[in-house]
């Protein structure tokens, strides 16, 4: 599937900073459903607070009902949003025509005056973040069966982005708040605002580091090297959250100052991985839970080239690939990291999110052996 319909438009805009939104509006005609501001204002009861679904880094999301009765999520980008017209177009470019049951569908947009609004399919059951890690009132009871489906569905969505699109898409911000749960709890990956086109013929894109601390792959956080394997790393951290019901953003797991991944490695070494399991989970098959945790460790290895592809991850989760444990080289992978020139905030972010974890990596990690 080809999804590069707006590439030219984005680069035109780069050349011409005075490029007007009206001009863009013209360019979008026929490529995506264009809503008027009035249509969306009516759908959301004038963007009324009672319809507010949440607020993200780029603006506020409202629930709306279109004239034809279809429910939508309307993401109004704030005027002061860091997401400029380029990113807006990138988001549209990336998600238009990209359809998969595990991806949130972009239905249309509105580019009128200074308004930049995205219209997505409405996803019923809030974000995984709220359901799993949120306040008690927002929490949803997710049994082991649902958790398997969420892991597998998310993996299939990512596999689609990485392996089945031309050019492939690296999401760049896989995290629990970007996984929405449908009525039947099927996961849908949303928020493609940070996604970039990723042609197969280059090994990585060196780019401004975006994404969320705690989920960031070390080579991406330290060197800005972005490959599909950065998403694989984040997905590994996400599996740990799903199995444990614990947030990767906190650093107090295992009774000491430890991030979730660090604690998991410790439990792995002690052969007590089941301690990680969410205390809210009443029944679960132990061997399967351990397998999922090990897949998470495969995914979040320090060395990007040791991480599996999403194709392999789907196979590992569905038990089509046998896991085998072998000696490997993870520690010291980033000893040569050059942090000169990084601001103290950048250094803190890097160390918080990655180095402490990397330093505690054991000598033995697992390798995938196809059956
Ligand atoms: N398509 C949707 N259907 C239902 N609710 C949605 C939809 N999209 C977003 N939401 C709700 O709006 C909230 C904010 O979403 P948004 O994508 O703007 O930010 P985020 O992912 O939480 O954070 P960030 O922008 O920093 O990544 C989500 O947590 C979710 O509760």
General description of the model:
The strands form 5 sheets. The chain has a 6-stranded mixed beta sheet, sandwiched between helices. It contains 12 helices and 14 strands. The chain has 2 domains: 5-121, Phosphorylase Kinase, domain 1 (2-Layer Sandwich), CATH 3.30.200; 128-368, Transferase(Phosphotransferase) domain 1 (Transferase(Phosphotransferase), domain 1). 36% of the residues lie in helices and 16% in strands. Residues 2-19, 197-201, 327-339 and 346-371 have low confidence and may be disordered. The chain has 371 residues and is of the alpha+beta class. The site of adenosine-5'-triphosphate has 21 residues, from strand 2 and strand 4.
Q: Can you tag this structure with a few keywords?
A:
alpha+beta, 2 domains, six-stranded mixed β-sheet, 12 helices, 14 strands, globular, disordered N terminus, disordered C terminus, Ser-Thr/Tyr_kinase_cat_dom, Ser/Thr_kinase_AS, signal
How do the strands and helices of this protein lay out in sequence?
Blueprint: H1 7-15, H2 21-28, E1 33-34, H3 37-43, E2 52-56, E3 59-65, E4 71-77, H4 85-95, E5 106-112, E6 115-121, H5 128-133, H6 144-163, E7 169-170, E8 179-181, E9 187-189, E10 196-197, E11 205-206, H7 218-223, E12 225-226, H8 228-244, H9 260-269, H10 286-299, H11 310-317, E13 322-327, H12 344-359, E14 364-369
Parallel strand pairs: 1-5
Antiparallel strand pairs: 2-3, 3-4, 4-6, 5-6, 7-10, 8-9, 11-12, 13-14
Helix pairs in contact: 1-4, 6-8, 6-11, 8-10
Residues 53-58, 61, 73, 75, 104, 120, 122-123, 126-127, 173, 177-178, 180, 190-191 line the site of adenosine-5'-triphosphate.
